[in-house]
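User: My advisor, Dr. K., asked me to get a structural model of this assembly before our group meeting. I'm new to this, so sorry if the format is off. These are the inputs:
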Amino acid sequence: MTDLTELTLAEARDGLAGKEFTSSEITNAYLGAIDAANSALNAYVAIGHDKARTMAKASDEKLAKGQGGPLEGVPLGIKDLFATEGDHTQACSRILDDFHPPYESTVTANLWADGAVMLGKLNMDEFAMGSSNETSGYGPVKNPWRAEGATTDLVPGGSSGGSATAVAAGLCVAATATDTGGSIRQPAAFTGTVGIKPTYGRCSRWGVVAFASSLDQAGPVTRTVQDAAIMLKSMASLDLKDSTSADVPVPDFEAAVERGVKGLTIGIPKEYRMDGMSDEIESLWQDGIAMMKDAGAEIRDISLPHTKYALPAYYIVAPAEASSNLARYDGVRYGLRETGKDITDMYEKSRAAGFGDEVKRRIMIGTYVLSAGYYDAYYLRAQKVRTLIKRDFETAFDEGVDAILTPATPSAAFPIGDNERHVDPVAMYLNDIFTVTVNMAGLPGIAVPAGLNAQKLPLGLQLIGKPFDEETLFAAGRVIEKAAGRFTPERWW
Amino acid sequence: MAIVDSRTPDPKRFLSGATGDWEIVVGMEVHAQVTSESKLFSGASTSFGSAPNDNVSLVDAAMPGMLPVINQQCVRQAVRTGLGLKAQINKRSVFDRKNYFYPDLPQGYQISQFAHPIVGEGVVMVSVGPDRQGNFEEVEIGIERLHLEQDAGKSMHDQHPTMSYVDLNRSGVGLMEIVSKPDLRSADEAKAYLTKLRTILRYLGTCDGNMDEGSMRADVNVSVRKPGGDFGTRCEIKNVNSIRFVGQAIESEARRQIAILEDGGQIDQETRLFDPAKGETRSMRSKEEAHDYRYFPDPDLLPLEFDDAFVEELATALPELPDDKKARLMSEAGLSAYDASILVSEKAIADYYEALAKGRDGKQAANWVINDLLGALNKAGQSIEETPVSPDQLGQVINLIKEGTISGKIAKELFEIVFAEGGEPRAIVEERGMKQVTDTGAIEAEVDKVIAANPDKVEQAREKPSLAGWFVGQVMKATGGKANPQAVNQLVREKLGID
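Assistant: The format is fine. Below is the predicted structure of the whole assembly, which you can bring to the meeting.
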């Protein structure tokens, strides 16, 4: 029998429905793989053996009767940002030590309603703030990929580093993730997996620990484009508990995967050709353009003139919202509380002990940009930039562009503890240069592995779509996947 | 933003100090709890008096990942209040976060409306007085804005030797902050404004106005100046919780400021608290200690938008408001402005009056309510809500007069009995023999008796017919007030030979 942990979601789903194996079998296979790998990779921060087996058993009973939902019996990993009832839910922050929510996020509730099984909670950058998974209160996650012939540990990207590593290393069929500035797409690109950030409002934010409310959006990390389509269909819903949830129908995304790009116009934005862009990224981009052309798409050079302001504006808006969203972690009602001589002292000691450096940095930036006298110069101006960025995309789409093709990241995965990125936080922030615009505009964006670099590390391309047109992204992403093939790391752990 | 001074200095309102007259300038921010089943952004109950933390949802406790959803009932109440204040209704408004740390503020921010409130400028007509001549003065007070915001919870410092407890029942309850323009010029005006505002809210049913339960609270901004001069530096007196205290707080704060200014000092802009026990205000925090609230639009909520039809529907269903009711009572029932003002001053009084006046003479009903009922309630220290005499009971009393069953004088006695003991007025009249005597023979005998006993008065009455009234009075006295006064009057005139 094949190794059950190598199956795609579609294969696992079909195998389960066809009674080729049981959910208990595939769930146990994954639990075994996690137990064997987690000390090396640190992808999971909580493994729910009992819960997974109980859920699998319940799925097996349904499957035996020929019943069950679209994900019946499929074992998934869940990013620690999603509240799952009674489980570890800490956004990988020490400030939420011992917090177990008495509620279930809408996205995970949707997945369980569709029959999925939960393996455990996945590591991530603390409060989703980071691009390397090194800011986690639970230690860094290792990328299952290493440069050819090297033993240097690489980051899996962030903030959904645990999700990306778990999917790439065979520690879950698929994973939930979230993306505020690139946190799904950048780790996907670093690990040779597929990640889609859907349109803002597509997935409910209810029960997802907030980082930056106007940018946060849940999405899946998977092994294939088809798997991403299947996952997103189950994750997405209109949720009246989230005022920003979109009242639009959720289409059968899977049906769009093989639609192709014949007759579509793919835009190539010149502003994404940054100074100092590496040759490997440039050539990857050209490969992607060729793949689209070969599949019958029309390629058009476009301009998104405000792109260069996106990253600085993002690093005002996101910290501003975060500084307010994280105010609730005050030691009063739940999570970590340090003893203080009065209430202010208790706040200061608890927050000093509970938050890591990157989170503190962003709270300080956010507090600063919202302060009296600075609000207009920073926050208000950043919001204006945001409007202009959005307008850039609207213009391109109005002029007939169906999707936009860009690199996903400016480089391949870099080493854990990389000095430059630790001395200079801005060097780390530059990882999001190609992805933040999409969050600022609320658009859907998908990262698809498109090739390996000279060190045999995966690189990804990004496709950006019109609002609520994820279907075109799945179709175009599939074109890249078909042309480039799939990429699996060699096991060293 | 320039503050417009809408008032002409009026010496009647001045306070005199050592250096001459001073004028008080007051503006108020009233926090009125929205009457609604559930909280502004959560489904938890708003009921008063529950056990601590009984009415707390996951949203109210600011659990991670929880999101606010606007309660449409609160939106309707705010719009209705805006309509009642004759204010501009903003079809698009925005919720902002006001950021600060406090244990009774679980989110670490209050959701409020800063730059774009749901209601804009409006007016409240306030009756100030009466003065020594019994006259009221109508003053127009401008409303700056009304916005929706969340209430905070409550810290309890008396439950544990070293810790404070927090009760989140009130956390997230909807408040309307109603901000006046600095148009008030005396403590009496401020009290009249607050009273009128409360009346309007109660007519609308958008706030119960119970200040002792904290569902209405006032922040009072006070400054003083030489009459007609520039606005002075203001101090804000926080959370004053009764109308009487608002008056006291303004008086004492104005006196404090005048004393400082007359000593050559200057007023520091600060937040103060009123101590009812001492009858004075004390400093709470200075301008330097003021928070930087870092307002910004709440990204969890979309701008609040509705259309004209929504406003129109609410406007159509709005109840009659005190000013309109007053005008109607004056034109329909012919009441004086004074009487009409009293009757509409509280919704419960107006409701009582209208129930009583239905099918009866409006003026007569007004006199009974104002002179007898309110007088008796006042004497007993009771409110109109606690009245022991229902409109139906008082209506029977009036009916009995109209039927000629009892005289007006007996009716007063009957009212007192019903007020003190309760019971059916008609039955009481039967049981206690209070019926009016209309038997002419019996009355005639009494008239003859009085005439016979007072020959000198008879002489005088023939000279001066108006003295007939004295004879009527004597007969009424002799019959214990039960004789029909008209019959007595007629007989007296006949017997005295005057027309």
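One thing worth pointing out at the meeting: Chain A touches chain B through 44 residues (CB under 8 Å).

User: Perfect, thanks a lot.
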